Amino acid sequence: TLPPGPPRDPIIGNLRQMPTERPPLVFHEWAKTYGDVVYLELPGKSIVLLDSLQAAEDLLDKRSAIYSDRPPFTLYEMFGWMPAVSFLPYGKQFTTHRQMHHSYLNRMKVVEHQPIQLQEARTLVDNLLHMRIGEHERYLSRFLPCVITQVVAGHRITSDDDPYLHLSKMVLESLFRSGPPGATAIDFFPFLRHFPYWFPGTYYARAASEWRPMVRELYDYPLRTVRAQKESGKARTSFILSQLAEMEESRTETEQDMEDLKGSAAVMFAAGESTTWGTLSSFLLAMVLHPECQEKAHKEIASVVGSTRLPDFADRGSLPYVECVHQEVFRWAAAVPLGVPHRVMEDDTYRGMLIPAGSTVFANIKGMTLDEKIYHDPHAFIPERYLQPPHGRGEPHFPATFGFGRRVCTGQYLADNSIWIAIATMLAACRISNAVDENGDAIVPAGTVSYGIGSHPEEFQCVITACSPQSAAIVRSALSFDPDEC
Ligand code: HEM
After folding, report:
1. Do 137 and 332 form a contact (C-beta atoms < 8 A)?
2. Where would one find coiled-coil regions in this protein (predicted)?
């Protein structure tokens, strides 16, 4: 028998019940009625929702040999995102792309990227300390593009007119326009792509034809520039340069190799940006809402690191409370709330239920963060929950922020380091507080979140000032840091 789920209508199945607002929270409610494995049907599609860590680990991790395919991402392909490891079916090209990412983003290799992250975290904090109220999103959104452009192409962004900054804005916009992955009308009914643009449901097809040239530029521009720099002897260490060197060595530089390289570089820009931005924005929101956590973290940094320098990666192990804040931001924010859907390649049986071959399998990561059996008061932001008793409740760090099995996020170590150093630097140097209205009363953010491919707090105001007269100067003086010297 199929897993339980909401009753289906003839022909259209569960189409009428599919939520348009806050899908992860609606799915989590369904799981309370039907259990942690929920079955849905849409015309031509079987969908399985996994709402517990247990079910997701049992299927997506332990049975990853058959759960690592992806459903077709018709719309993303139309936008020009091909080849892109995130959307490639399970197979040879997928393995090639994962290996390329792994070679530059694995747990050991990312240590080499830390000087870049340190420098960009300090630049971020310097900008936040000198911005006008309301500009924080602008600077948070720049942080990852600044890191990734150096990692991928060896280029440092220093001005607002930088072509990479322009490309990264475009990427965010195009992802925003393309709706949740695998879940737009075009994904469900691919034949709609051939209908005229005025036909209902083809809005996305029109958007795709407008955005495609820009997505292609994100594929072409980095390789074109690094090659030119390489020829003139000016290329700096980067993912693209190292891949070109490897290709030269093995004498394979076919057109397909070049497309694969362009695709794996482009995906590093695309997959990291809104996720890192959303997580950092959730951090600021949490700090506005919970000044007591901020104070505690700030005190820990002051006592361990002192107030004459900023924290760096070597301090991470000595800052347990900052670690709790970092982990709680990941759990509370759940930046990719429904993960990226997997596809099961064969019929499977789980706890006596049939998971039909070809089903699209969504891991409701947001739902898992709200599991009351694991997390007490799960909607609340409580960093102490991870501390051992009597200081806390000894709850486990949330293990699924980056997804599951053979599809787990390739950027997880880079992302974890980026966010840790940004958070630690902000906590060391900044005081983040409520904005005030014209009567001088604190404006308390509603704390609402918008859900798309990623989740992001809805617009809120905050004031960011330097913790002490010295801290702004310490940040400024730390900016002269040159990553090449490390
Ligand atoms: C806070 C930051 C980030 C979060 C929360 C995040 C989360 C995720 C999640 C949940 C998935 C889906 C995994 C699955 O299918 O089970 C994913 C996939 C992916 N992520 Fe990330 N990610 C982040 C940053 C990054 C960065 C910085 C990069 C690259 C530099 C990256 C590259 C990728 C790629 C390539 C995939 C697709 C992997 C595949 O399909 O095999 N991500 N990420």
Report:
1. no
2. none
Of the residues 82, 150, 402, which should be mutated to test ligand 1's pocket, given the most ligand atoms within 8 Å of the CB? 402
Tens of pLDDT, residue by residue over 162-214, are 999 999 888 888 776 665 556 566 566 665 555 555 555 666 777 778 888 88
Q: Please state the residue numbers annotated as binding site for heme.
A: 409
Give me ligand 1 centre to Cα 264, in Å: 13
Q: What are phi and psi of 465, to 5 degrees?
A: -125, 165
Query: Nearest C-alpha to atom 36 of ligand 1 is from which residue?
Result: 409
The answer to whether the beta carbons of residues 354 and 2 sit under 8 Å apart is: yes
CA angle 266, 270, 275 (to 5 degrees): 150
CA atoms within 13 A on the CB side of 288: 25
Number of Cβ atoms within 10 Å of the Cβ of 151? 26
Which is nearest to 414 in space by CA: 63, 106, 127? 106
**pTM reported for the whole predicted model:** 0.94
Phi, psi of 38 (to 5 degrees): -115, 135
- The answer to whether residues 269 and 152 touch, using CB atoms and an 8 Å cutoff, is yes
